[in-house]
Amino acid sequence: MRLWDKFVAWLNDEKLPPSTITLNPETERYLQELEAKLDRTVQDLADGLINRAQFENLYRHYQNQRRAFHGLLAEGGDTVPASLMPGQSVIIRQKYAAKVLAYAIYDNEPSVPLHTVGDFPVDSDLVVGFLSGFRSAAAEILGTGAAKAEAEDGKVLCYVPGQYCTLIVLYSSDPAEIDMRCLRQTHFHFEKLNADALKQHPIPAEALLFNYDMVLRHSRPDDKPTSSR
């Protein structure tokens, strides 16, 4: 059917003949899997399982794969080349995941660090500003469960306040919501594990169990945890 005839048929709401392009089972399965991966990538971002950088690079990766494969089909090919087989998505997820650069646990009352890991910006305006305003907005902050602030260099500070202490984590980029959820639960566990010690004044840092060291993967493992008291 000529293009003009197809256009006329569409205007007249006539049923068009089915496409004459047929794909072998392997090709059809690959295209369906690729489409499913695109759908899942969108859903993962909506569900907070990946951050924006991971989404953008995964989505671009899958679209490039589809574009390349469409080009092969247009040239008459009907098999999936090895260069388009799965495997790169895992590398992309890891490459663009927000990485933990440093973290610290602060005593809420005197606003001093109990425990730091990595090159933590103790004197940063973002850190000092947050802690200085903590007491006046304690109720509102505790209700949110967590807060984020972006530094000038693109790094992100995440604050998780608790009843006695505040966890502050420095990320290389904006973390996914699932990472924030992990921080909230881990900090809740910290205060539960150390309930008796945290009620003392001053808090005995050497007696605390820092479960963060079992959860947060520091990007420079050669740095060792230090206690500030």
Q: Which residue ranges are poorly predicted, with pLDDT under 50 across at least 5 consecutive positions?
A: 14-20
**β-strand amount:** 5-15%
Q: End-to-end distance, in Å?
A: 83 Å
As for the number of domains, it is 2
Instruction: Give the helices and strands as they follow along the chain.
Output: HHHHEEHHEEEHHE
How confident is the prediction overall: mean pLDDT?
Answer: 78
Described by the principal axes of the CA atoms, the overall outline is elongated
**DSSP summary, beta strand count:** 6
What is CATH's topology name of the largest domain? Beta-Lactamase
CATH class term of the largest domain:
Alpha Beta
Major sheet: 6 strands, antiparallel
Output the structural class: alpha+beta
Radius of gyration: 26 Å
Break the fold down into its secondary structure elements and pairings.
Blueprint: H1 3-11, H2 25-46, H3 52-74, H4 88-96, E1 100-107, E2 112-118, H5 125-132, H6 138-144, E3 147-150, E4 156-161, E5 165-171, H7 177-193, H8 195-198, E6 226-227
Antiparallel strand pairs: 1-2, 1-5, 2-6, 3-4, 4-5
Helix pairs in contact: 2-3, 3-4
Characteristic key phrases:
alpha+beta; 6-stranded antiparallel sheet; 43% helix; 8 helices; Beta-Lactamase; 229 residues
